Amino acid sequence: MTYLAYTSSLLALVVAAQSATAQAKQRQSDQDRPPAASPAPVEAISPAASASRTATSVDEIVVTATRRSERLQDVPLSITAFSQEELTQKGIVSYEGIARETPGVVLDTRSDNNVSITTRGISTNGYQAGLQSTTTVYLDELPLTTIGNSVTLDPNLYDVERVEFLRGPQGTLFGSGSLSGALRILTKSPELDHFDMSALADIGLTPDGGGVRQRYNAMVNVPLVEDTLGVRAVGFFRHEEGYVDNVGLGIKNSNTLKDWGGRVIALWKPSDRLGVRLMALYEDSFPEDASLVTPSLGDRKRYSTIPDHYTSKTQLYNGTLDYDFDFAHLTSSTSYGYQDGLFEVDLSGTFALALPFYLFDHGTWKTFVQETRLVSDPGGTFDWTVGGYYLRRDQFLEGRQTSTPEYLAAHGITGLPADATFNQFGSDTSSYELAGFGELTYHLSDTLSVTGGLRYGKYGATVDTHAGFNSLYFAYALGGISGPLALTPNAASTTEYPSAEKASWKASLTYKPSPDLTAYVTVSTGYRTPVYNARAGSVSTVDPNDLVIPEGAGSDNLTNYEIGLKGRFFDGLLTANLAAYYIDWRNIQVQANRQSDSIQFATNIGGAVSKGLEAEIVLAPARGLSLGLNGSLNDAQVTDLTESEAAISGAVDGARLASPRLQGSFYGTYSYDLPGGATGFSSFQVQHVGSFPNGFPNTPGDPTTPNPLIDDSDAYTNINLQTGVRIGRMRTTFYVENVTNSRAVTYVHPEAFTYSRYSILRPRTFGVRVGFDL
């Protein structure tokens, strides 16, 4: 499909929709049904968007999940939203806190910047190595996630407008990576009518063998020309001493994090119709070691002979133009992201520490995204959204696998370079996605609406493989062979994968008997783009008769059937959002490993089903008191598998996917007056996550042998407490995290590469947060 075809289709839809909207406005006044919020231009959403709870009722929340500003209660989707106030009060600074507070979501953490998010059970092993993530993370309009085992920035969450977690496939509006959900981090725009400034310092101490955690944040908002031009700048610095000791390196608290950066946003509004927003962001995140441990070594101990690094230096630039026509709101967003990351890992666990084996990868990712959309004004018989999307991502990878000069000398192995590199490789991968999308809602009556959405995309990729070399290092080392190693050159090559086209769609029926009650039924689909194996065609140097790496994995497909109910009751004292879903996942992309040398590759297997229930309930039973409960029940398992698919993946019929059956949190806040005009609050969060397996039960490539790497995470309950006081513009909060000092295993790495494979909760941490708002 050409650019011309997309453009012609979009223009035709715009013209038709404009005509329909104009006619509808003549037939129906805005009072015929409860009005939705006006589409949000580039300035911040009104204070009604706050997810904090008032003293006497539960505040309404405004979200932009449908690309227009709407009350959360009116959107026929499963969405959890967080305001900055709620993030700060609960001490949520990263994906981890968001996952624990969102039903149906788990976070699998190997290290800062090396995480995967699983939504509604749609994950086979929680690692997603070599595969496009099933849940896309957006920072404003730019997707941060690519493949599950790449370095993914965990961005700073200070002074954000809002965080939205959309569950279920979001492919119609958010593209191919949102197979099971989308996490949106929306930054705050400048205020144009007043000067503002804030700061927050957070000092925590982990006395049970951990270190000191320091977090500093500051914001300044300056209206350069009142009501016309303003700038908002945010800076942050984190130095968080770790809690894991690396016995191989002799380093205490080796998983220390150093993270700093900032962003600047400018907003120009020369008229009520036009807004131009520019943003520049930089974040340098450097975890000094991974957080995975080996329980058999002792409490909070890990082993490696080099630090495992997953570092990220990220730049993000965005320009957004908003214009209000008489009938619709136009948004054009242009984003460019540049990420430079290290992926350096001790892989000696592959051979049970029998020989040194290290991976040193350096990668850069350049991502360009252009999205243009037109969203109708609310109030007519029809609401519509139409747009076009283009993404281009260029990934550069240069890697080498090494031994050590000492090991080579001791075993009489010669012929390798001075740095003991036995395998050198690299590639440039250029991929693109071009799509047109649209949604149309027809209000059949004041209470009944039907919505249809379609996204049609075209994608393709070219992989340029760099010249490199390989050797028989493993054969020599494992076989006790000494002597010179020959370097076998790998010639440079170019592979252009044929472009493909794919559609995702959704249909929804919404019933609103009153402004405070919404019921909906939705069917939606999603997919991931194909995965191209960088080492396609390679033959094992350990066992030449082993599997030749295939070309890649094709798209998988997912259909989500969902029924939901959202309501506000008793004059806003109670809100409840309930959803039930059934997901059919076909042609699943999975990560497999060649047995002889553990090289990863992507392929496809049959199908799985995920079904579950989700609930979010918030109650304000008395003045100053609010209580909340969210939870999910999920059953996700393989349901369709051939013998050959079982052999290559290790899966079996009925095998569970990597998701807990039960997950939820119970939380509450009590606000009260103190002498001298001060106010106080006390709050708690009790978070429970059930256990889940880290992969399929059998050994890939050897289905008769149980996989020795399979293990379950722990079922655990984590308790956090906070109490604080606000005096004037100063707010002080004292907190305790992990009150019971649990060492629960939250994730088990599914591969033998690393000797340390278990992630645990951070031990009990005491701290104080001091914030100032001008």
From TrEMBL:
Domain TonB-dependent receptor-like beta-barrel intervals: 294-739
Give residue ranges for domain TonB-dependent receptor plug.
72-182
Which N-terminal residues, if any, form the signal peptide?
A: 1-24
InterPro entries reported in the protein's UniProt record: Beta-barrel_TonB, Beta-barrel_TonB_sf, Plug_dom, TonB-dep_rcpt-like
User: Which keywords does the record carry?
Assistant: Cell outer membrane, Ion transport, Iron, Iron transport, Membrane, Receptor, Signal, TonB box, Transmembrane, Transmembrane beta strand, Transport
Q: Where in the cell is it found?
A: Cell outer membrane
What is the protein's membrane topology class?
Answer: Multi-pass membrane protein
Please tell me whether the keyword Thylakoid is annotated for this protein.
no
Q: What SUPFAM superfamilies is this protein classified in? A: Porins
Q: What is this protein called?
A: TonB-dependent receptor
